[in-house]
């Protein structure tokens, strides 16, 4: 067979090449199985930007080739060893690696300007093996992970080792031995964020996750100061708490001693609005200096305007080696910063309030009430955050840390949220939002620096007005998920991305888009929206919830459940009559197999039952044609089911809520109460 060029269709996910040199063209968000066959085969990415390649299943693909433009190629430790050449196009190109072991000795890099990584844990070291110094210098080290760089053959020169140290590499290894970066290092500190209220001191290391190390037996000095413009409102200090490790010999002032665990490790050489300088003695070991760094505070006393400052921290050892960290400080006037213990109820005021929580703390059951102003919940220190058990009310922004954030939210928690910004300045920062619920309204909500939005439940419905947000959603671990674009339409390329991300049901301004993915034998859970939906089951035992709107429901084969759990129209005007707002049509009801489930929170006269233990409908509650008794609550006439809250009484009128297209001969046995 002669060599060929194979162009991928947008939904095509499997390629098999020829015995020649094949080229497979794909978009930037791809998932599938690719077998190049014989020859020297290339996977060509046709668009620049963020190219997700880490979960491909590839065989006999020798080259990945990019398009022109700034591009990040995201590969994993299962994919990278299978290719021989990564070739970037014209532009600034980054290799982003997921995993803890990266062997670059057999990979040729062309037009790749930076190598960065995200490990599976902030505490797990990353091991990178290179074949030359030039490749090692491409490594962009995150300050939040320990990195081991190994030269496969030969040795680094002294100048090369120094150059790698300057890039933040801590451990080096070559054929001559192991080397440790001798300079002081403040890990988990550089480009971090802190927040506080005007007039109140805030820790620079919020979350106390800064880790300090130094090769020298003791440190020489510490300088803390405002980077850039300094003013009289700036005030630096050291937090001293009863029983804490750090203490001072007197009130903060020039000449006061600094103690850790009762041992004097230095004294304050200078202290003013310009900053604080501490001179250390021989007792200032790395462990003791770490305690001082974790206790540093910043206060801004200007209550009239928002203060945003960059604070510089410099540590030096006796050999003149230094490390520098810059922290971004935000001080809000007229508001309050609240540290959130698990049992506490957050209550803001009329200003711009700041609430802060750390990993491992649930937000309180009673919720956070922001009050007036524009309020923000800060997630300090990185890690996993679970916003549940309560509501966030009048809090407009959720802001992440400068580390990997995983934020799990329930739908009510996002009711008032307008912005979720998990932005971190560290390269390799990987941030995830997880949606724990079955319906989310993300319209008018902005997601910044979020890498992926994970769905946690089958049948999740997400309404949104942003194509960019839709492309972040990952439903590959769930089934029968539904994305609804409330404004505009998806392009064919957008649809291919959503399909690759496991989204089975897609609706936009052009209507519903056919879904080729679900197995026809799967037991589906189909959930409608507030609009008019057409929900179609398969061959399995499906559960179908139309929700609001005049929906068309089709069960297909199998024993299907049609659930009615949404409030009926009030009927006070022509526009809110139920036949206008919530009258669903069942096209294929099959007596003896299918069931209609009625929620007793809506149909209050029908008795007890629940999802886990449905109740049977009392036969006396069901009547054909017309109510003749006061307990004839369900009326069935000419294919239409009515609910009458007082039967033959005159206070309430019958409300039609179901039409059966086949006008099946219903009885009380066809209904269950939940």
Automatic annotation (TrEMBL):
Gene Ontology, cellular component aspect: extracellular space
Pfam families noted in UniProt: HemolysinCabind (PF00353)
InterPro entries named in the record: Hemolysin-typ_Ca-bd_CS, Hemolysn_Ca-bd, Serralysin-like_metalloprot_C
Protein name in UniProt: Ca2+-binding protein, RTX toxin-related
One example GO MF annotation: calcium ion binding
PROSITE patterns xref list: HEMOLYSIN_CALCIUM
Taxon lineage: Bacteria, Pseudomonadati, Pseudomonadota, Alphaproteobacteria, Hyphomicrobiales
Species this chain originates from: Microvirga guangxiensis
Entry-linked SUPFAM superfamilies: beta-Roll
């Amino acid at each position: 067979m002669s060599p060929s060029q194979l162009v991928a269709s947008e939904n095509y996910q499997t390629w098999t090449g020829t015995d020649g040199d094949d080229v497979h063209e794909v978009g930037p968000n791809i998932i599938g199985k690719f077998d190049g066959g014989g020859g020297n085969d290339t996977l060509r990415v046709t668009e620049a930007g963020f190219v997700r390649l880490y979960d491909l299943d590839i065989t006999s693909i020798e080259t990945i080739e990019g398009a022109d433009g700034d591009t990040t190629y995201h590969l994993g430790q299962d994919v990278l060893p299978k290719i021989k050449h990564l070739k970037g196009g014209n532009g600034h190109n980054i290799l982003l690696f997921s995993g803890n072991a990266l062997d670059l000795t057999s990979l040729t890099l062309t037009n790749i300007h930076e190598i960065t990584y995200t490990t599976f844990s902030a505490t797990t070291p990353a091991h990178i093996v290179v074949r030359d110094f030039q490749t090692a210098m491409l490594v962009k080290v995150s300050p939040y992970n320990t990195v081991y760089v190994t030269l496969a053959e030969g040795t680094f020169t002294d100048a090369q080792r120094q150059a790698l140290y300057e890039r933040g590499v801590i451990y080096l290894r070559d054929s001559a031995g192991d080397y440790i970066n001798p300079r002081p290092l403040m890990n988990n500190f550089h480009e971090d964020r802190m927040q506080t209220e005007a007039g109140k001191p805030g820790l620079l290391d919020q979350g106390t996750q800064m880790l300090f190390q130094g090769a020298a037996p003791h440190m020489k000095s510490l300088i803390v100061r405002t980077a850039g413009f300094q003013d009289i409102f700036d005030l630096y200090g050291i937090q001293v708490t009863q029983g804490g490790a750090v203490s001072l010999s007197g009130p903060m002032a020039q000449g006061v001693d600094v103690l850790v665990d009762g041992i004097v490790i230095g004294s304050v050489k200078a202290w003013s609005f310009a900053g604080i300088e501490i001179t250390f003695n021989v007792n200032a070991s790395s462990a003791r200096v770490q305690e001082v760094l974790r206790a540093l505070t910043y206060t801004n006393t200007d209550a009239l305007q928002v203060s945003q400052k960059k604070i510089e921290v410099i540590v030096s050892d006796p050999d003149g080696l230094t490390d520098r960290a810059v922290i971004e400080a935000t001080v809000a006037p007229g508001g309050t910063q609240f540290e959130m213990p698990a049992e506490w109820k957050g209550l803001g005021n009329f200003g711009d309030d700041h609430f802060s929580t750390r990993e491992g703390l649930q937000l309180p059951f009673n919720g956070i009430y922001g009050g007036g102003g524009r309020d923000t919940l800060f997630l300090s220190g990185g890690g996993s955050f679970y916003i549940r058990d309560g509501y966030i009310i009048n809090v407009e922004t959720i802001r992440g840390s400068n580390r990997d954030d995983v934020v799990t939210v329930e739908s009510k928690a996002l009711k008032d949220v307008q912005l979720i910004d998990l932005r971190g300045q560290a390269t390799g920062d990987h941030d995830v939002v997880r949606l724990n619920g079955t319906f989310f309204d993300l319209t008018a909500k902005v997601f910044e620096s979020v890498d992926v939005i994970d769905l946690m439940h089958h049948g999740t419905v997400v309404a949104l007005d942003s194509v960019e947000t839709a492309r972040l959603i990952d439903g590959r671990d769930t089934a029968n998920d539904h994305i609804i674009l409330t404004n505009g339409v998806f392009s064919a390329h957008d649809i291919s991305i959503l399909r690759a991300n496991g989204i089975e049901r897609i609706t936009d301004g052009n209507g519903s888009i056919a879904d080729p993915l679900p197995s026809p034998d799967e037991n589906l859970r189909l959930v409608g929206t507030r609009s008019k939906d057409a929900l179609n089951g398969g061959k399995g035992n499906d559960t179908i919830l139309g929700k609001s709107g005049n929906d068309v429901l089709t069960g297909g084969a199998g024993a299907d459940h049609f659930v009615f759990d949404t409030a009926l129209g009030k009927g006070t005007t022509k526009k809110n009559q139920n036949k206008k707002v919530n009258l669903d049509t069942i096209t294929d009801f099959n007596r003896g197999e299918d069931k209609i489930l009625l929620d007793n929170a809506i149909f209050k006269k029908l008795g007890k039952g629940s999802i886990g233990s449905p109740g049977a409908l009392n036969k006396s509650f069901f009547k054909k044609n017309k109510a003749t008794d006061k307990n004839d609550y369900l009326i069935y006439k000419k294919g239409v089911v009515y609910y009458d809250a007082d039967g033959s009484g005159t206070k309430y009128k019958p409300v039609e809520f179901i039409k059966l297209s086949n006008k099946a001969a219903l009885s009380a046995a066809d209904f269950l109460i939940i």
